[in-house]
Amino acid sequence: MRMKITDVKCHVLVADDVDCGLTSSAQDSFLVVVTTDEGIDGYGESDLNPWIGRACVEAPGTHTMGIGMRELLIGRDPQDIGLIWDDIYTYTAMNGRRGAVIHALGAVEMALWDIAGKAAGQPVWQLLGKKRDTPVIPYASLQPSGKTFETYRDALCASAEAAKNLGFQAVKAECTMSGPFAHDSMNEPFCRHTDLVAAVRDVLGPDIALLVDVQYIWRDAETAFATVRDWGEFDIYFLETPIWPDFLDEHARLAEQVPFPIASGEWLSTKWEFVDLIERGKVGVVQPDVGRVGGIREAQAVCEMAAVREIPVVPHCWKTGVSLSATAHLAFVTPGISFIEYLPPQLCIEKLRRELATEDLDFENGEILAPTKPGLGIEINWDAVNAYGQL
C-alpha cells in the first residue's frame, strides 16, 4: 500500500512582541504540516508573509493553469517528492512561477522530505546523498538593536563578542543603518558603516571569518564602491546584498572593483533566477534560501550549478529551527557550502526562533554535528503554535 497525503494545514504565526519597524522576518513564521494516512506528519517552513503563504497553498484552483496547491497534494504519495514538485510547479504556473507561490511550495516540499525521512527511519541528509568529508561550519548571524549609531554599534559588538566566546569560527554583521531596510528607521551616513565594520573586526580579531550584510543599501556600483573601496583591509569573506537585486549589471560592475566576493540570492525562487544572478550579476557567493528557492531539491540544483562554476554557496536562513534543520541537512551532503546561517538560543532575540522548534543539531568546537534523528529531526512546540497562531 502506498502512503497518502490526507491533509495540509498552514499555520500563520506572529510573535506577540512583533515590531514592524524592525528589519527581521524572524518575527513571524509560515509553518506547513502535511499529514498522512500512516500517521506520519511532516513539517516545513518558509520565509514569506505567512498570510500570503497560506493563501498560496489553500486557495482553490479555477482552471488547469491555476490549480490549488492543496488540491494537488491530497491523495498523493508524499514520497513522490520530485513528481509532486513538478506537478505543482506546472499546474500553478499562472499563480506564480516565481515569488510567493514558489516560496510556499518550498515549505511544502520541506515537509515531504521530513515525511520521507521518518518513513525510512533515516535523517534527510542520508536520503539526499553522500556525507561530505569536511565539517559543516555555522556562522552567527547578528542583527543588533539600537536607534543611534552608538547603541547599534555597541549592541553588534557585544553580540560578536558573545559569538566569539561561544566558539563560532565565523560571524555575519548586519550593517543596516540606512537604505530601504534600515533598522528601526535609522539614517546614518555611509561612512558610519565603515566605522561599524571596523569595530566588529576589532572585537573578533583576525582569526574569525567576518561576513557583512548591508541589505540592498545602494542602487549602483559607483555609490557602493565609494564606501566599500577600503573594506579589503577588514578581510571580509563577502559583502552581502549591497545593491538592489534587479540591477544585475551594477552587481557585475561592483564585483569587478572590490577585492572580496559579492553575495546575493536570498530572495530568489527556482534555479532559473540564479542563472541570471551568476551569469549576468557575476556574484562570487550564491545564497539560496531553502524555503524561498522552492525547497531542498531546488536548493540542491543551485548548489550543483554553483559547483560547476566553482562558486561557493552560503545558504540564507533567517527563520526557526525548521528551516535551519533543512539547511543543515542540505549542507551535510554539499561540499561547496562554505558556511550555514545559525543562531543558538543564547543569541536569538526573536521569540519564534527560540520557541517554535527544537532541532537535532549539536554545536561543538565551532562545527555543527550531523543530525541522527529520522526526517528533519525537529520537534514542534505546539504551545508556541497556539500562543502565536493567527486566524
Question: What can you tell me about this protein's structure?
Answer:
The chain is α/β, with parallel strands linked by helices and 391 residues long. It has two domains: 117 residues, Enolase-like, domain 1 (2-Layer Sandwich); 253 residues, Alpha-Beta Barrel (TIM Barrel). 39% of the residues lie in helices and 16% in strands. The protein is built from 15 helices and 15 strands. The strands form four sheets. It has a seven-stranded parallel beta sheet. A four-stranded antiparallel beta sheet has the order 3-2-1-15. Strand 12 and strand 13 form a beta hairpin. Helix 1 packs across helix 5, helix 7 packs parallel to helix 8 and helix 9 packs parallel to helix 10. The longest helix has 21 residues. The radius of gyration is 20 Å and the shape is globular. The two termini are 36 Å apart. The mean pLDDT is 96.
Give helix and strand order, one letter per element, not per position: EEEHHHHHHEHEHEHEHEHEHHEHEEEEHE
**What is the overall shape?**
globular
Low-confidence stretches: none
Quickly count the helices: 15
- The CATH homology group name of the largest domain: Enolase-like C-terminal domain
Domain module tally? 2
State the helical fraction: 25-40%
Number of strands: 15
CATH class of the largest domain: Alpha Beta
> What is the name of the CATH architecture of the largest domain?
Alpha-Beta Barrel
Mean pLDDT: 96
Across the major sheet, the strand order is 9-8-7-6-5-4-10
